[in-house]
Design brief:
331 residues; alpha/beta; 4-stranded antiparallel beta sheet; 11 helices; 26% strand; disordered C terminus; binds adenosine-5'-triphosphate; nucleotide-binding; DrrA
Length: 331
Amino acid sequence: MTNTIVIEDVELTYSDGTEAVKGIDLEIPDGEFFGFLGPNGAGKTTTIKILATLLQPTAGMAEVNGFDAKTDPRLIRQSIGYMAQETLVDYQLTARENIRFACEAYNVPHSEREHRIEELLELTDLTDVADKRPDDFSGGMQKRLDAATALVHQPSLVFLDEPTTGLDPKARNRLWDYFRRINSEGTTIFLTTQYLEEADQLCDRIGIILDGEIIATGSPTELKQQVGGDILDLEIEDEDDMRTRAAEVVHKSSVFPDATIESRPDGLSVASRAVQNHSQDLLLELLNADVAITGFAIRTPTLDDVFLAITGEHIEDSQTHDDQVTPEVTQ
Ligand SMILES: Nc1ncnc2c1ncn2[C@@H]1O[C@H](COP(=O)(O)OP(=O)(O)OP(=O)(O)O)[C@@H](O)[C@H]1O
């Protein structure tokens, strides 16, 4: 298997001195669904623009589809699909005309165009509105049309820059189905997202980027294993230092020697390899110490727990500016 993307020690510093990407290395094999996860301002879009040859790295080497980003940007652009963060559909044209225009721009052979247009309309579930202009379309429909225009030339590699930001769950799910389908047909996908669940659901492998540096890579399962065990969520009354006392009991407990403890609005979360087999013992110790537990639950770690374990922050807390985060996909 060959690598569709190879990045070696790539840096990008903007002219105002902002170090957006600080020496990243990455290899993405053919056919992978790769997710680049990170908070606002982490460097996701900058990386995608380097790979799509819209920005030149200030240092390092990027190779895409076997072409060097510095010497062969034109060949790279012809061989990729790029769905930018902002929707790029033309509101003067109908959905069908938008896709036809993209066929012309990407030099899709005349003999294949009509078939390709119908196929893409169907894939993106826009056949019924094919002859309507997109100004009345919902945000999700516009995004699907945008995705169709990015894929008319059937690229083997597609960059999707936060494709579902601001979409409702139904619209998001339809796009997910589409991305899954093209990936199962062999397309390599490089997706940037700030949504943990999106990365978790879709991606074979995830890279977490923070402040221009990749701080972890692995499959969702591998990353979750880094948390070290399962999580015991404890609901504890917020009175008489009860939570502090509970944390002390957990710290001192011989049954949870590896525990890491995180405060939550309604109590504590405890991560430990012992959670699965010894939670009852810990609950007993807490009871003996007069800590009133009003509820508890055992769960497997989420990607937010991974982010927390690595950075000490929740991903949402580390957002650098407000954003229309779709609540139902945040953890
Ligand atoms: N043209 C620019 N000039 C100067 N700084 C920039 C420019 N574009 C982005 N930045 C800065 O570079 C850093 C990385 O931004 P980038 O857009 O790559 O992050 P991101 O992870 O994609 O975030 P978002 O989700 O907000 O798009 C941020 O600090 C951002 O403010």
